[in-house]
Amino acid sequence: MEFEELRKVNKKLKKTVIKGKEYVEVNQRILGFRELFPNGMIETEVVESEQGVVIIKAIVKDCEGKVLATGHAQEKENSSFINKASYIENCETSAVGRALGILGIGADTSVRSFDEMESKEFQVTSNSTINEMKQDALKLSIENNGILDSKVKEILDKFGFERISDITLKEYPNVIEAFQKVINK
């Protein structure tokens, strides 16, 4: 891969603004990888899974199997609303994002995962809507916790959203907290 190719791909990737900085989400990094390495491979493996804590390693390879980059991530079950239902999936996505970031894809400003960027040390300033991964994880958590459609509608109405796909990054933590309260009752 030539640096100029990487630069061209990075310019095309959709960005989300967090605390005034642009961030490229993992799904966009994967698209960039596929453009640069159409026959490349992304492999993941569970390094450790013990007492509700998982560590996953992502390995990014070219079409010949040569390792281009690796990335690791750790998540704890029940540490967040999403991690109640999807901590392993969330961890895998973070590891892949880090490996692709280390390779240089979508890493113009940061290698951090989206969840790291959303943590309390970062302030979400974008009115962009949440990505598909967050939508799917929220839907899965709603389903797994048996939250009724009427309750989902009530929570979405409270924040002025018609659908889960309308939830903004800025309001996402508040919406999650509202769902968490329903689950804890």
Describe this structure in words.
There is one protein chain. With 185 residues, the chain is an alpha+beta fold. The chain has helices at residues 3-12, 26-36, 81-103, 114-118, 132-144, 149-158, 172-184; strands at 16-18, 21-23, 41-50, 53-61, 67-76. 46% of the residues lie in helices and 19% in strands. A 3-stranded antiparallel beta sheet has the order 3-4-5, with helices on one face. The protein has a two-stranded antiparallel sheet with strand order 1-2. The protein starts with a helix and ends with a helix. 30% of the residues are buried.
The amount of beta strand, in percent, is: 15-25%
Average pLDDT reading:
83
For the biggest sheet, the summary is: 3 strands, antiparallel
Could you estimate the helical fraction of the residues in percent?
A: 40-55%
* Number of E-type strands: 5
Radius of gyration (Å)? 17 Å
- Number of helices, where a helix is a run of at least 4 consecutive DSSP H or I residues: 7
Order of helices and strands: HEEHEEEHHHHH
Strand order of the largest sheet: 3-4-5
Query: By helix and strand content, what is the structural category?
Result: alpha+beta
